[in-house]
Every structure is written in structure tokens, then in C-alpha cells.
Amino acid sequence: VQLQASGGGLVQAGGSLRLSCTASGLTSDTYAMAWFRQAPGKEREFVAAISASGEKILYSESVKGRFTISRDNAKNIMNLEMSSLKPEDTAVYYCATRTYYTNGYDTSRYWNYWGRGTEVTVSS
Known about the structure:
Structural class: mainly beta
Helix content: under 10%
Distance between the termini: 37 Å
Number of strands: 11
Number of helices: 0
Largest sheet: 7 strands, mixed
Strand content: over 45%
């Protein structure tokens, strides 16, 4: 399984960015996916998750109402639409997936495949 995140960049506060994560090597579409982020000097934190079907979506409180996660299983792509960006959203964003079922989602230990990350910088 390989995940490749893209779409990061430099944006002014209040602006928008769209991140994408392309998955390859998966043999089925029965997998949840998620976005995490890690700011310099901080631990990796949960951003959003989406179920295999796309019907169940969860967000961290810090991004709820500003970020939208979605997926296209036919193309094996997951997206994160980010709007009203704030300087505190600055981080490396990672996409993740897992090949087993669990109810947990909000820490790294629940996800067993990770992409390399894409950097997002929000200037004030």
C-alpha cells in the first residue's frame, strides 16, 4: 500500500487549499482514510477521517466547519478542502489508511499506512 499526499503550499490567512491523497496497492475499497497534521515541535494530531463508503465523517474540533474531507473510491483518491485557513493550521499534513477494522480513529496508532506528507504554510 502506498499513499501520496499533494496540494500543500503557502497561503495567506483566510485563504483556501485543497489537499489530495492518492492510494495505490489496495485490493479493495473497504478501508477508512484520514488526515493528520504535525506542526513543528508538536505531536501529530488528528484532522479528519472518512469511512470506506464515505458515509461516516469525523473532524477535530479545531477544523470543524472549515475543512471538508471527501473521497472518490473509483479513483482511489481522498481530498481535504481547507478554507478560512489560520496560521495555526500550518503543519505537514499526512494521509493515512488502515487495513483492519476498529472504532478508534483519533490517534496515529489506529492507522497502519501513511503517506509522506505535504507541507501547508499559512501566513498571517
